[in-house]
Amino acid sequence: MATTAPTTHAALLRWVDETAKLTKPDRIVWLDGSEAERKRLTEEAVAAKVLIPLDQKKWPGCYYHHSNPNDVARVEHLTVICTPTREEAGPTNNWMAPADAYAKLGAIYDGCMKGRTMYVVPYIMGPPTSPFSKVGIEVTDSVYVALNMIIMARVGTVALERLGQDGEFNKGLHAVADCSPDRRWICHFPQDNTIWSVGSGYGGNALLGKKCLALRIGSYLAKNEGWLAEHMLILEAESPTGEVSYVAAAFPSACGKTNFAMMIPPKTFDGWKIRTVGDDIAWMRVGENGQLWAVNPENGYFGVAPGTNRKTNPNAMDSVRKDSLFTNVARTAGGDIWWEGWDTEAPAELIDWKGAAWKKGSTEKAAHPNSRFTAPASNNPAISSKVNDPAGVPISAIIFGGRRSTTVPLVLEAFNWTHGVFMGATMGSETTAAAVGLKEGVRRDPMAMLPFIGYDAGTYLQHWLDMQGRIPNPPKVYMVNWFRKDGNGKFMWPGYGDNMRVLKWILDRAHGRVTAKETLVGNVPRPEDINLSGVDLTPEAARKVMDVDLAEWETELESQQEWFEKLGKTLPRPIALQRDILLERVRSARKQG
Ligand code: SAT
Ligand code: MN
What is the pTM of this model? Predict the structure, then answer.
């Protein structure tokens, strides 16, 4: 931690100086990423009542944070792509002209750090020695944000060293300022490699390396440089014979990415090991053998707490045992924590996420549905040994998944790359608590990237199509759905560890070991090729959860029209044609009965 700049990078010094002139902090502190610094910042945060220590015997190095109750999730309606033209941002993003955005936010930043400390957080997204990695500098007025960044990215001297005298860096200006929803904006300037975020301290809005750099700015860079920046977990699967494979999987926020990335296989899969490379973001480039190689740009997990327990995700529970931060979960006066979906029932009394007394039996939730843990990846007992490999890991399969109570079967394999891109482009999901102010129901969420594509969505889909020409050895593409419900509104598939059964089939297919059955909308497993022994499922339910119902698919494909119209004239023609072909075939099959 230093109050004089530990760098001679002229452009960086100039930018920090300009930022300080605008925000007028009392003190500037540069982070070095040391253990001593983390301790000191934590003590400062406790003294300022930003953090509350948990019981240090039970939760060593763990602290609690209540956010402002008005600031608990991403704010898509206030998230803006600031490109010279509206067309570059496209129909799915909010847009502001760069000059207007700089002026509007500049007025809010003006003097907003008076009386406060400005933390300068140099960070690397990606393994420190990887050519894939990117350096960012986040300037923030929030010690809570600085401490989260220390967990989520590689922070401090390591980043300044990588930057050298004149390296390229993302300029991220963040201020919680007065945390007013009326003065809250998350603005991205892809052409300037700049992010301006104000008025929120929440993860996806404030930890600028995550959604803002690794996905929104990242996707823009990826299109220009010929790679993919995606909202995907990366997992490693080792079979009992020692075969190691990697898959990348996209699910919208709060649909179980962290659980899938840390899955424990069921008993009948004795000898299988699942390890985590990443739980939220994948940067993928063409590498050796013409395969797609992925790195996880992050260094920690910012996971949804409710529903996480020793049964659903023991590796996550182990990951949060020490040196972790908890935001908006429930706590006890004695420094313990609890949330809905914990292993045991709620204690008689809690302090709820707003800081109010809570009694067992209350109809209010004790933890916020989007309450989070921030945990160092190195705490995960199932971490892959490849997380710091500069080359990344070779991807055998890409999986797209949504939260759908009907229509989408447990697993569906794409016929080819274009069909796979179509599957990703038309992914739908029922809304969750990870973002505020969304209409209930199915929203189309291409590649789970709707809130994160930093440019025009149709152009993004074209980029996906174009990648085929760059990947000599492409992964196979799948769609999965763990969330199908029966006639009584009950989930049919047990999910969690049992998702291994689906993953095993995907790996068998990816390695060319089993055949599949072709349906009109994609390939599905033959019953003998998917191991359902020991799963809590009647044969009838097993059939239903994997069923392709053509009447439902006709409705599904018809309903995609509205989404395609929204995408407008940059929607790639091959994607529109995919839909036409599928719809024609489904209609004629239904006519024939
Ligand atoms: O809230 S975050 O954007 O950080 C996490 C998520 O929604 O995926
Ligand atoms: Mn996410």
Answer: 0.97
